[in-house]
Amino acid sequence: MKTDILIIGSGLAGCAAALAAAKRDVEVTLLTRSPQPEESSTFWAQGGIIYQGANDSPQKLVADILTAGAGLSSPEAAALVSREGPRLVKEILIDELGVPFDESPDHSTRWDLTAEAAHSLPRILHHKDQTGLAIQRAFIERIASYPRVKLLCAATAVDLLTISHHSAEPLDVYKAPTCIGAYALDQTTGEIFPILAKETILATGGLGRVFLHTTNPAGARGDGIAMAYRAGARCINMQYVQFHPTTLFHPSGRFLISEAMRGEGARLVDGRGREFMTDYHSDGSLAPRDVVARGIHQMMLESGEPCAYLDISHKPADQVRERFPGIYAHCLKYGIDMTKEPIPVVPAAHYSCGGISVDEWGQSNLHRLRAVGEVACSGLHGANRLASTSLLECLVWGTRAGAQAAAFITGDDDYYFPRIAPWRYEREPVDPALIAQDWLSIQQTMWNYVGLVRSAKRLNRAHEILRELGLEILRFYEKAEVTDAMVGLRNGIQTALVILLAAMECRQSRGCHYRID
């Protein structure tokens, strides 16, 4: 299969890139491992996307981003997203796609802009507590109207194709590092086939699933990080993994309780009803995410309580149900009526601030490989992401990467595609019990030793465990039949090791990376 642009991942970043490229009439192949294109981290995003508040300015947003980023955010990246972001929200999301953002109830302004932690003023657009879902559906519907966009669902990217790694011509090893597409697995037939592309854009999302507790969907296994790392792409700031302070504490698993709830007045309290966050930060429950997550963690350690509680029951019940229908319904399903009682919450791995190093157009250090969204590191988030910048970053960098990649597309004669060796199939059956146990080992090790609070002893212990496990998984992968689950396990251990090694090298506490030694 050949295409002009291969985009791996169908969340907002991938969709924004696909739409921008499709408008320039190039051939786009959008690949996703999910059976439905809507399934992505974007689909589950609750809070909202940054727009422009009253008396707001790009300079104010830049200041908030840099403050939250703990001195590590790129001023250039912050200026770019602050300048371009609100314009693209209006032009694409509001005017072109008609995303049904909530309007102001008193009609004093058009939009109901809410506040979130570490923002100096209300500037967050939202669709109730299901903003990502509304954006995602609008994008998928629009992309489907372009005949030159081909959507491949239930197709797993196995590895990036590079000239130096995969060419059948030995002398190609001397050519500049260049990505020429990817191997893809058809989950239905088990066939693995190459997709050759003039430009490849990684938009695979996050890596939260390498931790025991996470807000991320099942596909957030670090696939893009692992593939890019093996191909030779530069990955930076991987130690900065943001833990969301508030996820539902329940045996059914973790469910994100949006930061917008605290923006709307919800209070974090302990088991006695005391607002404990003022012990750790003057902004209390609206402190930056890493501070709140560690504050909850510390309160639990000191008190012996299994969780904290998020209380919005002092607000009018109708208002709470109207503003947070998804969270209300989910909690009620498990017997928690948040209009009458507090929600039990604990921190969980939420967002990777690091990723594949890219420039302002999403270009990596590998020729013809771009990365956008959470899998990329533009420098915007620094050591700690400001709330609701993630969807905005996806929109800005996705649009720019897709547009520039399409602009660069020329005739076939201008691109070198070497002969690629056919895939060598192995047929040893995959034991799901082994995969499940290996994943549990990865997740528990990362949570206990490379989680909210780190130290040299914890990181060294994790290194011993994960290094040995990595060798076992590699031997497992070499002989096993390739399935989506097997690909995910291989990528999960690779991503966990990349995070761990970055954490071991960084001896200074900053933002999400907190060391007690």
Shape: globular
Main CATH class of the largest domain: Alpha Beta
What class would the helix/strand composition place it in? Answer: alpha/beta
Quaternary state reads single chain
C-alpha end-to-end distance = 52 Å
Q: How many structural units, i.e. domains?
A: 3
Rg is 22 Å
CATH superfamily of the largest domain: FAD/NAD(P)-binding domain
Level-2 CATH architecture of the largest domain: 3-Layer(bba) Sandwich
Helix count, DSSP H or I runs of 4 or more residues = 15
Question: What is the makeup of the main sheet?
Answer: 7 strands, mixed
Give a short synopsis of this structure.
This protein is 37% helix and 16% strand.
Question: What do these coordinates show?
Answer:
The protein is α/β, with parallel strands linked by helices and about 525 residues long. It folds into 3 domains: about 300 residues, FAD/NAD(P)-binding domain (3-Layer(bba) Sandwich), CATH 3.50.50; about 100 residues, Flavocytochrome C3, Chain A, domain 1; about 70 residues, Methane Monooxygenase Hydroxylase, Chain G, domain 1 (Up-down Bundle), CATH 1.20.58.100. It is built from 15 helices and 16 strands. Strands 1, 2, 5, 6, 7, 8 and 15 form a 7-stranded mixed sheet that branches. A 4-stranded antiparallel sheet has the order 10-13-12-11, covered by helices on one side. Helix 1 runs parallel beside helix 12, helix 3 crosses helix 4 and helix 13 packs antiparallel against helix 14. The chain starts with a strand and ends in a 12-residue tail after the last helix. Its EC number is 1.4.3.16. Its cofactor is FAD. InterPro entries: FAD-dep_OxRdtase_2_FAD-bd, FAD/NAD-bd_sf, Fum_R/Succ_DH_flav-like_C_sf, Fum_Rdtase/Succ_DH_flav-like_C, NadB, Succ_DH/fumarate_Rdtase_cat_sf. It catalyses: L-aspartate + O2 = iminosuccinate + H2O2. Belongs to the FAD-dependent oxidoreductase 2 family. NadB subfamily.
